[in-house]
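Appendix B, example 12.
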Amino acid sequence: VITEGAWTKTSPYFSPDGKTILYGVISKEGAGIVEQEIGSKRFTFRIKKPGVNLDPRIAPDNSYMLATLSFENNANIYRATRTGSIIGKVTE
């Protein structure tokens, strides 16, 4: 077991270096994308926007990530820094 807790976890994705895993979480408080170091139970929220927060993917060079988000009414793919700051929309 890599993750624990009552939250629903979705869309796991390993970082290019294999040291962390990103995944979506869904709870009564909302949804978000977290990153967790393999072998640790600690995680860090990378993105937590209203609506859909799914399908995190990290660029092969580890410089940014992509995720499906719907905080602007429609679900689109967004580019974000590795710490979760939104850079911009990839799709319309």
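The chain has a mean pLDDT of 93. Residues 6 and 80 are 27 Å apart (CA to CA).
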